[in-house]
């Protein structure tokens, strides 16, 4: 279970999260909506432990352990995983290399050859990671790495950005797979937090709850599908008012 | 096969093997071994290739004397003069017309006696249409307090012949190393140099010169250098593109882990329609040491294509954090990135040798990087 309490975060001296609280129990998938610059990516990067994001207040707890000052790699080993929107390319490190390393570190029993086939990545396995990858290829490579790591809690930063319809189907169904959405609700162990602009991912990973993040503060917590429909009709202004009238 | 085995003292074995030498001679067409000033092993199993110690070759071939010191000027500097005045040995190798060696030939130069000054002269001849890959493994004993190596090598690459010349250095903290190499490549011939040095030296200084004398001749110099603290690598290459349609590339990947690296490259377009490219990429791991990239391009002709790229920096923090986010500790992430940067795939080596070098790079992990 992930518990964030009154989290305040600054980056390069500017406050980007101004007291965020949310709880994601095991087995649940939550979705984060919000306009550009509202702090969504900052929240994910802070939970992952990126050092540019300085915690100035509040706490992040994962399965009862405080993460606030824990290095990134230790968080990953605790079972936190990230699906990056724009990961860096690394020359000389092949996708197959990194998959093997992650697999060894996490002790998972996945078969990279089978996963590569399922993700339509076979031809990319011998290439340097993310080097010249297209939008869809980056997403599939990120999924490959998550399958090798099998984290208990996964964060997805706009999994549908830059992806065509055909890729979306593949990526969406694999995310559904990772999140155990086909498993009976009471049996699910994986949890996640997903940033989405388009909401397409909801067609695959039927989320339990949705939030809107506006200017570094969570303004609304609601059924994910309903919240998305509201935002589509009324924009984010409505959310702002909705909470203010509460 | 046991009669081919190269005998060395057990304590020296690891060092020699790390320099790319297979003591069981597996996957090698022949071997030459020189420890201090003495030649201890000479074998050649490939038909059409003759390999002798330089003294024996001079007795057998009177013409050899005429060829020696034609590519390297004996008065080049004090070190070269020293090697001229007192050559201990070296190898002579001649590949007959059209002969293509199915496996690399290996030559080992080993310094193990304290304060020994090893002085070597090698002569290499590839006749028309022939092919050979030479692996030079040069090392010093780990217990050596002080020593030096001066190696003169003159290489004649005939018409349409290809010489791949791989040099792996694994010297020691107080050893001075000064190879003096020169290459002449005839029409349609190709010379490829691969240089790998990942460990200590006091100073390794070399600036081989290739003369692309015939139309369509090609020279490529690739190097991977990692300079630990206290080491100086002053290396590079000069290619004279003296004939039309010649082609030259100098590519270096250098990493300073506190040591000094000067990566030089000089390309001279002395004929029209030549192509020349120079690429120096450097990575600084500490606020200590030096990387200096010195690329030079010269020409007097308008129809040439000559370029260079040089970039020096530190490891991209985003790459480290990305690997860490997958559960890889920081130190491991850094060494994986450095090994990736020193990409041995660039060389197009035989797979077995590529694996050996990769293993070598891996063994540096956790070595203070």
Which two chains have the most extensive interface, and how many residues on each? A-B, 28 and 22 residues
CATH superfamily heading of chain A: P-loop containing nucleotide triphosphate hydrolases
Mean pLDDT metric of chain A: 93
> What is the topology, as strand order, of the major beta sheet of chain B?
2-1-5-7-9-11-14-16-18-20
Individual helix count of chain B: 7
Task: State the end-to-end distance of chain A.
Answer: 27 Å
Rounded radius of gyration of chain A (Å) = 18 Å
Number of domains as seen in the coordinates of chain B: 2
Backbone CA Rg of chain B = 20 Å
Beta content of chain B comes to over 45%
Structure description:
The complex is a heterodimer of chains A (246) and B (369). Chain A is α/β, with parallel strands linked by helices. Chain A is 35% helix and 26% strand. Chain A has helices at 40-48, 72-78, 95-106, 112-118, 135-149, 165-178, 224-244; strands at residues 2-11, 14-24, 29-33, 53-62, 65-66, 80-83, 153-157, 191-195, 209-214, 217-222. In chain A, strands 6-7-8-3-9-10 form a six-stranded mixed β-sheet, with helices on both faces. Chain A has a four-stranded antiparallel β-sheet with strand order 2-1-4-5. In chain A, α3 packs parallel to α5 (135-149) and α5 packs parallel to α6. The two termini of chain A are 27 Å apart. By secondary structure, chain B is an alpha/beta fold. Chain B starts with 9 loop residues before the first helix and ends in a 6-residue tail after the last helix. In chain B, α5 (317-324) crosses α6. Chain B folds into two domains: 10-316, no CATH class; 317-369. Chain B has helices spanning 10-18, 54-60, 64-67, 78-85, 317-324, 330-341, 351-363; strands spanning 30-35, 38-44, 49-53, 91-95, 105-111, 116-126, 131-140, 147-157, 162-170, 175-185, 190-197, 203-205, 209-212, 218-228, 232-241, 247-257, 260-269, 275-284, 290-299, 305-313. The interface between A and B is medium-sized, with 28 and 22 residues.
